[in-house]
Amino acid sequence: MTALTVAFLAFLAFMVGMRLYLARRQVSALERGGDAPPAPFREAVSAEEHRRAGRYARDRLALGRLELIADALALLLVTLGGGFNWLDARLAGVFPGPVSHGVAVLACLSLALGAWSLPFAVWSTFRIEAKYGFNRQTPALYVLDLLRSLALGAALGLPLLALVLWLMQSAGGLWWLYAWGAWVAFGLLLTALYPRFLAPLFNRFQPLADGELRDRLERLVAACGFAADGLYVMDGSRRSSHGNAYFTGIGRHKRIVLFDTLVDRLEPAELEAVLAHELGHFRLHHVRVRLAMGMLGSFIGFAVLGYACRWPGFYTGLGVASPSMHAALALFMLAVPVFTFPIAPLSAWWSRRDEFAADRYAVAHASATALSTALVKLYRDNASSLTTDPLYSAWHDSHPPALQRIAALNSAGTP
C-alpha cells in the first residue's frame, strides 16, 4: 500500500465520518428546536409549519447519509476496487486511437456513476419533495429532462473532453496550460450562451408584464447601474413550488430571472428587496471575484494534474494498473473532492460573508423590512429549517442561518 493510497483512504474516511457526524448534530439541533418556531418567526410561521420543516430536513438528511455511503463505496469500487481497470480493458479494442478510447472510457464512467446516483435523485424528487408538496414534475417530464441533459452534456462536453485529451497527448510539457485556457474559454462561452440558448431548452421565459412591479424593478436596476437584457419570469412552478431569483449571463447579455412561484408569493416591495440583494452581488463584485477565483482554482488544478500524470505513483496509489492520460484525468476528478473536503468551511464562510454584504447593499437600495418579510415567507414556504447546528452550518451552509440573517436585517431596519 503506497503513501498516496493511505492518504486517500484517510481523507475519504475523514470526509465520510465528518459528514455523518455533522448530519447527526443537525438532527439533534432540529429535535432541540421543538414544536415552536424561534421568536422572530412566530407571527409568520405556525407551529405545524415549523414541525413540517423539521421533518423535511430530517428526511433529506437521512437520504443524504445513504447517498454519502453509496458514493464512497462507488468511489472505492472505481479506484482501488479495480472498476476503472475493468472498464478500460473492456473498451481497449473497440476504439482505435488514444483520444477516442479515452473519451469513450470517461463517458462510460460518467454514465455509470450517474446511473449509480439516479435512484437517490428519483427518491428525493418523487418521494421526499412530493411528500411535502414541492414536486410538480411528472415522471415523463423527469425522464425528458434527463435525456435532454444527457444530450446537451454529450454535445458540449465530449468535444471539450476530446480537446483536453488531445492536448495531453500532443502539446508537450505545457499541455496543462493550453488545456486550462480551453477550459476557461469554454466556461465563458457557456455563460454567454446559457440565457438565450441553453436555459430555454428546459424552461419557458417570458418578459415580466408591464405594471407596478416591472416599473419598480426597472427603476431599481437603473439606480444600481446594472445593464440587463431584460426582466424575465421563468416557469419554475412546472417542476417545483420552491421560489428563487437570479441573474445570468455576461456582458450585455445579462438577464434577470424571477421564478413565477416567487412573483406569485411576494409583494412588489418584497420582490424589489430580493432583487436588490441579487444586484448587490453584482455591484459588490462578488460574481467577478468568484469567476476569477474559479479560474485560479482551475489553473492550480490543471498544473497539479500536469505533474500528477507524469508520476507513476499517482496511478498505482489510486488503483490503476495501466497509466494513461484519460486515467490521470479520471483519477484527478474523482480524488480532488476527497482531498479538498477539509477546506469546505472556508468556502462556506466566504459565501455567507458575501450574503451578509449583499443584504446590506439591499437595505441601502430597498426596504430592510420588506427583505426580512420576504425571507421569512421563503423560509416558511420552502420549509427551510429555522434551527441549525453551528458546526453543521459552518461546513454546509452557503447562506447565513435564518436567525442570524433576520436579526441582522431587523437591526439594519431599526432607526
Keywords:
415 residues, mainly alpha, four-stranded mixed sheet, 16 helices, globular
How is this structure best described in words?
It is built from 16 helices and 4 strands. With 415 residues, it is mainly α. The chain has a domain at 1-134 and 302-415. A 4-stranded mixed β-sheet has the order 1-2-4-3. α4 (98-131) runs antiparallel to α5 and α7 (212-223) packs parallel to α9 (268-283). It is globular. The N and C termini lie far apart (65 Å).
- The number of distinct helices, counting runs of at least 4 residues, comes to 16
Q: What portion of residues belong to β-strands?
A: under 5%
Straight-line distance between termini = 65 Å
Number of separate strands: 4
Question: Can you write the helix and strand succession as a string?
Answer: HHHHHHEHEEEHHHHHHHHH
Helical amount = over 70%
**Oligomerization category of the chains in this entry:** single chain
Q: Helix/strand/pairing class, anyone?
A: mainly alpha
What does the largest sheet look like?
4 strands, mixed
